[in-house]
Specification:
Elements: H1 2-14, H2 17-36, H3 39-59, H4 67-99, H5 101-107, H6 114-141, H7 148-160, H8 162-175, H9 181-195, H10 207-212, H11 217-228, H12 236-261
Helix pairs in contact: 2-6, 3-4, 3-6, 4-6, 4-8, 4-9, 4-11, 6-7, 7-11, 8-12, 11-12
Length: 262
């Protein structure tokens, strides 16, 4: 495994910069097309947060005051962008490890980082679509009033916010087998969404859940999204630092795992 990785690094170093850049672009393009052509992955990822927002943010939320659709826009935005990172990385990596595709990719004369960049690009493209759908529903259906700056900030936060969940999915994908990956990731995804206050406000949940909520990256991304639309509680850079720390830690742990076990 180390020999394969080393040869890839040497090959990438010997390639002209234009070919290295082209390799990154082609890998990203291939991953995006691959998942955009998989309705079994794409449709649930896009529909779940949209349907939940229509039900709870528009049909039910509007009757409880104008702040509810605004609040749930941030919450379901986070719920939406978690999925492409966790499932796009976690399930696919587990399957590719099990079928030997990852070993094949490592043996190819391509930059070693192109694989990760390709999957991150795919997750960010899906996050772009989710964020735009929810913003359109909030503005045109729920009549949420947002300035151009607030919409742009929320959009950027959500698209970049997929990265910690890409890193988490990367780690999970190194720990489980392909067949069990969807179930394991759902056991991470759904409880984390509930425990960080994405489905129900933390204020109405038991006190012990409120105390442990800050340990989840989804909680910190939600706080950043709330700040973007003028409903935050401050500490923006603390939340950014926590998410960055999670991302680095997950990537380092996953890299170590891959070096040892492939």
């Amino acid at each position: 495994m180390n020999t394969v990785t080393l040869s890839m690094g040497e090959t990438a170093a010997a390639m002209p910069r234009s070919r290295v850049l082209r390799a990154y672009v082609q890998e990203a393009r291939t991953e995006c097309l691959r998942y955009l052509r998989m309705p079994g992955f794409l449709l649930p990822t896009l529909l779940f947060p949209s349907v939940f927002y229509v039900m709870f943010g528009i049909l039910l939320g509007s009757a409880n005051g104008p702040d509810v659709p605004r609040l749930l826009l941030a919450s379901y935005g986070v719920f939406g962008v978690m999925a492409p990172g966790l499932f796009g990385f976690g399930v696919s990596l587990a399957l590719e490890r099990e079928t030997g595709l990852l070993t094949l990719k490592r043996a190819l004369p391509m930059p070693p980082g192109a694989y990760l960049v390709g999957k991150m690009s795919m997750a960010m493209v899906v996050a772009v679509i989710i964020s735009l759908i929810l913003l359109a529903l909030a503005v045109f259906a729920a009549h949420v009033v947002l300035s151009g700056t607030q919409m742009a900030t929320l959009f950027i936060v959500q698209v970049l916010g997929v990265l910690p969940f890409c890193a988490m999915g990367l780690l999970v994908g190194t720990l489980v087998r392909g067949q069990g990956a969807p179930g394991i990731i759902n056991m991470v995804y759904l409880p984390m969404a509930f425990l960080s206050g994405l489905w129900f406000p933390l204020q109405i949940l038991p006190e012990f859940i409120q105390r442990i909520a800050p340990i989840w990256p989804s909680y910190h991304l939600r706080e950043l999204c709330l700040s973007a639309i003028g409903m935050g509680h401050g500490g923006v850079w603390i939340h950014v630092a926590v998410l960055a720390s999670y991302t680095v830690a997950f990537v380092l742990l996953a890299s170590r795992r891959l070096r040892r076990h492939g």
